[in-house]
Specification:
Length: 251
């Protein structure tokens, strides 16, 4: 049975898109067909992680939202070699990086119901096992509807007081929307922090399952969104942890 997973954070800068790309790749390494929709239309960027050249984007999610094409026309196969060797496939539905099209979204908005319909259509038309939604930070109509249709929600936060406060709002809304599964993922944890103490604090604060506590390492910093970490450093402790998180989310 296909599953839709929303990856969300209340604030920007949590590493949400990086984590989405890594979780998607980890799932695809099991030979699965995985789709990613970049619904962060105001500040898209996940395409960079898969080495996708903006010049080759003939269609983007924006075109579908404005009724100019079918949703499957915006899907690009971005399967990295290790995933291809494992028999998996990754499709990316990017948002446009063109300034004029971003400005149009800000000025005119778009039909959120059409976005939700398109997400459902993608699962069927691309025969996906998993579809990951990389949401826009914060809370808006698109985010709420994406959460509503999801089988699981992953809320990413940093060990930061502002993140803690904003995450509390997201968690409460997710409970009101009765999301079947919800996980918290603490990212970018400084090496000086005790990860187990961070896990215990977050679990107690939100009374929710903590899928993982990811330390910020030099390798992650140096990569600087230059690829998908778990594929480039498969034996790194962080990569192994992410693979475990992916398995937990879809269990």
């Amino acid at each position: 049975m296909p599953k839709i997973i929303s990856i969300h954070s209340f604030r920007g800068g949590t590493g949400k898109s990086n984590m989405t790309a890594n979780i998607a790749s980890s799932l695809a390494l099991h030979g699965k067909r995985v789709g990613i929709v970049d619904t962060d239309i105001q500040s898209p960027g996940i395409h960079v992680l898969f080495g996708m050249d903006e010049e080759n984007m003939t269609r983007a999610l924006n075109d579908y939202l404005w009724g100019e094409c079918l949703i499957e026309d915006t899907a690009y196969i971005v399967t990295p070699p290790p995933v291809k060797e494992a028999g998996g496939t990754i499709y990316l539905i990017p948002s446009s990086i063109k300034p004029g099209e971003i400005a149009r979204v800000l000025r005119e908005g778009y039909d959120v119901a059409r976005l939700i319909d398109g997400i459902r259509q993608l699962v069927d038309r691309l025969k996906l096992d998993y579809l990951l939604i990389d949401t826009h930070p914060g809370l808006n109509e698109e985010t709420l509807l994406s959460i509503t249709i999801s089988d699981a929600l992953v809320v990413i936060l940093r060990p930061d007081n502002q993140d803690y406060q904003g995450t509390a709002v997201t968690v409460e809304l997710a409970r009101q929307l009765e999301v079947p599964k919800m996980f918290l993922l603490v990212n970018k944890v400084p090496a000086a922090f005790d990860r187990e103490q961070v896990r215990e604090k977050v679990a107690k604060t939100y009374n929710a399952q903590v899928a993982g506590v990811i330390q910020l390492t030099d390798e992650v910093v140096r990569l600087a969104s230059g690829g998908v970490f778990c594929l480039l450093y498969p034996d790194h402790p962080v990569a192994k942890q992410i693979r475990g998180i992916a398995d937990l989310i879809v269990a």
